[in-house]
Design a protein that fits this description.
Number of strands: 6
Structural class: mainly alpha
Strand order of the largest sheet: 1-2
Strand content: 5-15%
Helix content: 55-70%
Distance between the termini: 53 Å
């Protein structure tokens, strides 16, 4: 597609980096507009998101590096070129969640209610992030002959060039948009705190586990035929299910 949006001299704007930035911005704006003031103040919210974004980028990059060590063996400085692609969502998600937990405890913010407010934004931000992947060519799909297959021909693309591939980045982008819509409206209903976030864990885990079968890029080490992302998906699916079971028990006792 178009990995580079435009260049002016030595200044280059990468489409991937732009879409990731848009994703973070829209997610932050959404939470700022929808979160209740008794959960977190606006000042604390923006402070939380600023450091959470940093934590997410660092975590996402570290996991990418760990699963693609050979890529950086001859060019270690490329580790810092995150604007060109190379972020693993689960790495960023896990580190960001750990930071949010720490921040909420430190500021005495109700974690379950905060996580519910953030959950839809995860789908919204990730939607833009996957569009960035599509333009960069990273996280590309396997070869296929379907009518909606895509061919990457740009010399700067990270995808296989000149072959018909599953547009798996678009699959996941649309899936994340669906998650956003579902959780946005679910949050409007009365429910036990933490349940929206649990639904996010479950729905995204199923989505990601399924789409891994369509990925054509290097998936790192596998265990029992499953990629690292699929194993993480299983863990998150279990965690989300446990949260919902406990929430349902509390609801029945009300």
């Amino acid at each position: 597609m178009h990995p580079i949006l435009f260049s002016f001299g030595n200044f280059t704007v990468y489409t991937y980096g732009l879409f990731v930035a848009v994703g973070f911005f829209t997610a932050t704006l959404y939470v700022a507009k929808t979160v209740k003031s008794d959960i977190i103040s606006q000042d604390n919210l923006y402070s939380l998101f600023l450091y959470t974004i940093v934590a997410a980028i660092v975590g996402a990059r570290i996991l990418y590096i760990l699963t693609n060590l050979g890529e950086f063996a001859g060019a270690p400085l490329d580790i810092f070129k995150i604007w060109q692609g190379g972020l693993v969502y689960y790495g960023g998600f896990i580190v960001a969640v750990l930071y949010v937990i720490w921040y909420a405890k430190r500021k005495k913010i109700p974690l379950a209610r905060l996580s519910d407010a953030i959950a839809p934004a995860l789908g919204l931000g990730h939607f833009f992030g996957r569009l960035g992947c599509f333009f960069a060519g990273c996280c590309y799909g396997k070869e296929c002959s379907l009518p909606w297959s895509v061919v990457f021909n740009n010399t700067d693309t990270l995808a296989l060039r000149g072959v018909h591939l599953h547009p798996v980045q678009i699959y996941e982008a649309l899936g994340n948009l669906m998650i956003f819509v579902i959780l946005h409206f679910y949050n409007k209903k009365e429910h036990i705190a933490g349940k929206t976030f649990a639904l996010y864990l479950i729905i995204y885990a199923v989505l990601r586990f399924s789409l891994e079968f369509f990925r054509g890029d290097f998936r790192g080490a596998t265990f029992a035929g499953l990629s690292i992302a699929q194993l993480v998906s299983i863990i998150l699916l279990a965690a989300g299910s446990i949260i919902i079971l406990r929430a349902n028990k509390k609801w029945k006792k009300k």
